[in-house]
Specification:
Order of helices and strands: HHHHHHHHH
GO molecular function: DNA binding; sigma factor activity
Number of strands: 0
Helix content: 55-70%
Structural class: mainly alpha
GO biological process, one term: DNA-templated transcription initiation
Family: Belongs to the sigma-70 factor family. ECF subfamily.
Pfam family, one: Sigma70_r2
CATH class of the largest domain: Mainly Alpha
Protein name: RNA polymerase sigma factor
């Protein structure tokens, strides 16, 4: 195999950098610590750069990177032997929040409820609801069937609504992304 084309390297680099904010948000949702999330994103980018020859041009780079990040996260968790518990919400409180406004308390409640979900449901709702992946893409990232992802998202939405005592969409804060997670409605207004 010859030297990579400089134009291809430049395009790949540009495409990688465009996904960094999404990767960081996903890493933050998994870890809850900005420093550790940044380390996870950096490790993901290094692995992606080293394995760029295995990336198939024309396929979904974002999904490929999310898969690398997710796999690296679980590898790190296995090495540690246990997850960090966040019973008092300290890690969740460190996550970036929306500006102080009426929905701030709803957002805190949402984060607390999100932390109470089983890991598989939390991951699915973040991928589909928070990161905008389709069910198919999320299933590919999680290496499971589409129906499994749909079931996890459905159970997560139901459980979040129960935990937050939400009975109708308009009872929850003004955040459109959060509303989309709770209801599964279209993101066309975003």
């Amino acid at each position: 195999m010859g030297e990579p084309d400089p134009a291809d390297l430049s395009a790949f680099r540009k495409d990688l950098l465009a996904v960094v904010p999404n990767l960081r948000a996903f890493a933050m949702s998994l870890i809850g610590s900005a420093d550790r999330a940044d380390d996870l994103v950096q490790e993901t980018l290094m692995k992606a750069w080293a394995k760029q020859s295995s990336f198939e041009r024309g396929t979904n780079l974002k999904a490929w990177l999310f898969t690398i990040l997710r796999n690296e996260f679980y590898t790190q968790m296995r090495k540690k032997g246990r997850e960090v518990s966040d019973a008092d919400g300290i890690h969740a409180a460190r996550m970036a929040g929306h500006p102080e406004q009426m929905g701030h308390l709803d957002l805190q409640d949402f984060r607390k409820a999100l932390e109470l979900l089983p890991a598989d449901q939390k991951e699915a709702i973040i991928l589909v609801g928070g990161s905008g992946f389709s069910y198919e893409e999320a299933a590919e990232i999680c290496n499971c069937a589409i129906g499994t992802i749909k079931s996890r998202v459905s159970r997560a939405r139901t459980r979040l609504a129960e935990l937050m005592s939400v009975e109708a969409e308009d009872e929850f804060g003004p955040d459109a992304v959060t509303r989309q997670i709770m209801t599964g409605s279209s993101r066309s207004n975003m």
